[in-house]
């Protein structure tokens, strides 16, 4: 299964935010990197159908071609789930009820969730270790726990593709890594893909198969770990984006990037 974006252009309040963005992602994890204001959230919102497209097309290729950009919100939700950057804290309902909302695309207008829907919600919460929060209120749990509740909701939605806007914000160090390990395991089991924005280039390096670099509203690069010169190109982009010099080191635990100390520069 592939997600393909062709010639995307987004204008908000008469300002062009994204222009001529085209890329294709295969199964597995794709990370979107870019400095503040580069257009990451706008790109992910446009994939989720929240930002109207001024121009362009979004396709899911899965044996047949599905034109996401032409689908209603309800139909699109069966194919693509979205975890927003800000968690709505005003929502005063038990976490289990929030998670089971992920089943809405499969229910008729006035239907209530069935026992099987709650079972899916319980399983998703169990796998993310938040089952104990079932009866807690969504607006009373921590920011990191809310992120996990959003992820559980996205899972029960059983969409073919996931879009996550800075899902690691608010998560503690251990949870950031466990989140990405579990997400990758889930994507492998389901044979599907996810695209997420992230500010930490090390996490993107460690866990993503593909990295999209956004710069000033344009797609500056699409890098794949399979590219023979991936590391060299990646380090070069990190220098251009953040002004940080790094080197890749091979360690017994795998490769890692080590930064040149900023105070050693001058
Ligand atoms: N509704 C809007 N109307 C006008 N301009 C907007 C709107 N939403 C975002 N922008 C502008 O679009 C640009 C890209 O914003 P976006 O939130 O997509 O960036 P980002 O890469 O996600 O940033 P960050 O890393 O800080 O979250 C910014 O300059 C922002 O001010």
Automatic annotation (TrEMBL):
<dbReference type="GO" id="GO:0016887">
    <property type="term" value="F:ATP hydrolysis activity"/>
</dbReference>
<keyword id="KW-0813">Transport</keyword>
<dbReference type="GO" id="GO:0005524">
    <property type="term" value="F:ATP binding"/>
</dbReference>
<keyword id="KW-0067">ATP-binding</keyword>
<keyword id="KW-0547">Nucleotide-binding</keyword>
<dbReference type="InterPro" id="IPR003439">
    <property type="entry name" value="ABC_transporter-like_ATP-bd"/>
</dbReference>
<feature type="domain" description="ABC transporter">
    <location>
        <begin position="3"/>
        <end position="241"/>
    </location>
</feature>
<dbReference type="InterPro" id="IPR003593">
    <property type="entry name" value="AAA+_ATPase"/>
</dbReference>
<keyword id="KW-1278">Translocase</keyword>
<dbReference type="Pfam" id="PF00005">
    <property type="entry name" value="ABC_tran"/>
</dbReference>
<dbReference type="InterPro" id="IPR027417">
    <property type="entry name" value="P-loop_NTPase"/>
</dbReference>
<protein>
    <recommendedName>
        <fullName>ABC transporter domain-containing protein</fullName>
    </recommendedName>
</protein>
């Amino acid at each position: 299964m592939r997600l393909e974006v062709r010639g995307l252009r987004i204008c908000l309040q008469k300002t062009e935010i994204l222009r001529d963005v085209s890329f294709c992602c295969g199964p597995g994890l794709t990370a979107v990197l870019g400095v503040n204001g580069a257009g990451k959230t706008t790109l992910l919102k446009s994939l989720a159908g929240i930002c109207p497209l001024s121009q362009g097309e979004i396709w899911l290729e899965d044996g047949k071609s599905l034109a996401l950009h032409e689908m209603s919100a309800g139909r699109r939700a069966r194919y693509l789930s979205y975890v927003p950057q800000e968690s709505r804290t005003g929502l005063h309902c038990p976490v289990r009820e929030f998670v089971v909302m992920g089943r809405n695309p499969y229910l008729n207008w006035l239907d209530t969730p069935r026992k099987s829907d709650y079972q899916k919600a319980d399983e998703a919460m169990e796998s993310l270790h938040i089952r104990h929060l079932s009866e807690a209120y969504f607006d009373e749990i921590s920011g990191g726990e809310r992120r996990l509740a959003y992820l559980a909701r996205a899972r029960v939605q059983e969409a073919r593709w996931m879009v996550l806007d800075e899902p690691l914000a608010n998560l503690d160090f251990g949870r950031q890594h466990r989140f990405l390990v579990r997400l990758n395991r889930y994507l492998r089991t389901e044979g599907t893909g996810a695209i997420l924005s992230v500010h930490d280039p090390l996490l993107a390096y460690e866990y993503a198969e593909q990295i999209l670099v956004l710069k000033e509203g344009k797609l500056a690069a699409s890098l794949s770990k399979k590219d023979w010169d991936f590391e060299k190109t990646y380090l070069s982009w990190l220098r251009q984006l953040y002004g940080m010099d790094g080197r890749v080191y091979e360690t017994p635990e795998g490769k890692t990037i080590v930064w040149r100390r900023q105070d050693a520069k001058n």
